[in-house]
Amino acid sequence: MSLAFGRHYLAIPGPSVIPDRVLGAMHRAAPNIYQGELVEMMPGLLRDLRRVARTEGANVAIYISNGHGAWEAVNANLLSRGDKILVAVTGHFGRTWALSAENMGIEVETIDFGKEPIDPARVEEALANDRAHRIKAVFATHTDTATTIRNDIKAVRQAIDAARHPAALVVDAIASLGCDELYFDDWGIDVLIGASQKGLMTPPGLGFVWFSQKALAASEGSDLVTPYWDWRLRSLSTEFYRYFGGTAPTHHLYGLREALTLLLEEEGLEAAWRRHAVLASSVWAAVETWSQEGDIALNVPARSSRSHSVTGMRIGSGGAARLREWSEKNAGVTLGIGLGMAAPNEPSYGDFLRVAHMGYVNAHMTLGVLSVMEAGMRALGISHGTGALDAAAQVIAEAV
User: Fold this and answer.
1) CA distance 168 to 135
2) Where are the domains positioned within the chain?
3) pLDDT-based confidence at 374, cuts 50/70/90?
4) What predicted TM-score, i.e. pTM, was given to this entire model?
5) Rounded (10°) angle between helices 153-162 and 120-129
6) I want to staple 388 with a disulfide (CB 3.0 to 4.6 A). Which of 46, 167, 289, 350 is the partner?
7) Which DSSP letter does residue 263 get?
8) What DSSP element (H or E) covers 257?
9) How far apart are CA 13 and CA 358, in angstroms?
10) Does CATH place domain 9-16+268-399 in 3.90.1150.10?
11) pLDDT in tens, 211-250
C-alpha cells in the first residue's frame, strides 16, 4: 500500500516550489516583445533584482540559462585566456565552477576545504604569496548546494583586503539568494551570480549576474566574451531585445515579476531571511535529536556554517538512499540526493541526502517532511533518537 496519492512535494534544493500565483502569471498568451507591458516592466525588474542583492549601483545582466550558464557568462566577461583565478572550494559546486573556468582556458588555483567552510586566513595567505598579482579574482560559493556549507563572504572580502590584493570577489549565491542574508555593497562583492529556480521561486531558465563598476572596468579587453554573453549589451543597452541577446524569455519574466512582488512587497526580504532561518533551525533540531541514537549526523557540524536554504545529512549503511526511496514511493515526498558527498561507485554513496527548505516553503511543509522522514525510519528499522518532531515543533513555536 502507498499513501503517496495526492499533491507530490519536491523537497530537493531546486527547482523549488513554484507559487500558484507565479504559475498563474506565466499562464497567458504570448505578449508583444517590441512594446507594451513586457517592455515597460523591465526597469522595475532590474530595480527589484538590485533590491534582492542589496545593491544600489551594481549592473544587472539576465541570461536565458541555468546557473552553469551564469558561471560561463562571468568567466567570459571578467577573464581572458591565461588569466589566473583562486577558487575556494567547499563542495561539488565549487569544484564544478573551477572546472568550467579551466575548460575555457583560465588558469585555476584551488584551495579545497573539503567538508569545511572557507578559512579566510588561507585565502589571505594565498593572495599574499601572489606578489605579482596574477590572480584576477577569488571565486567563492555563498552556499554550496551539495555540502550545504554556508560561507562567510564578508570575511573573504576582508581577507582579500588584508592581503592588499586587487583581486575581484566573485560569489555564487544561486542557492542562497532570497533565503540567506546577503549584502552585495556592504560585503564588497564585485560579481554575484544567481538563478531563478531556488529562492526566487521561478522555474529554471534564468541566470542573473550583478557586477560592480570595478568588475566592468576589469572586463575591458576580455578575449573570451562573445556577443551573446557580453554583459555590457545585457545591462547597458537601450534596446529591449539586447537585454536577452534576442527574443525575451517572455513567460519567465512574468513569473519572475510575480515572485519578486511576493518576496519584496508582500513578505519582505528580511522576513524571508528570518523564515528560512527558523525553518532551517527546525530541521537541524530534528536531525540532532535523531542523531542521539544510530548512525545519523548533519553534514555541517558548526551551526554558523549551515545553510538556511538546504540541510545535508548522513544516515549510515545506505540508510539515506533507502529513506529517500521509501519517502517518495510511500508518502509522495522527494528528498535530495547527497550530491558530491561520495562517488557513485563508493559504498558510502547511499549514506547522504539533503532536505530543502528554500523559497515558497512554510512551517507545515517543513514539519510534514520531517514527519515523513521519521515514519520512513520507523518503517525501515533505521535506528534513531526519539523526540525529533517535538524538538522541531518547539523551534517553530518559539519563533512565532
Assistant:
1) 9
2) 9-16+268-399, 31-266
3) very high
4) 0.96
5) 30
6) 289
7) I
8) helix 250-260
9) 7
10) yes
11) 999 999 999 989 999 999 999 999 988 889 999 999 999 9
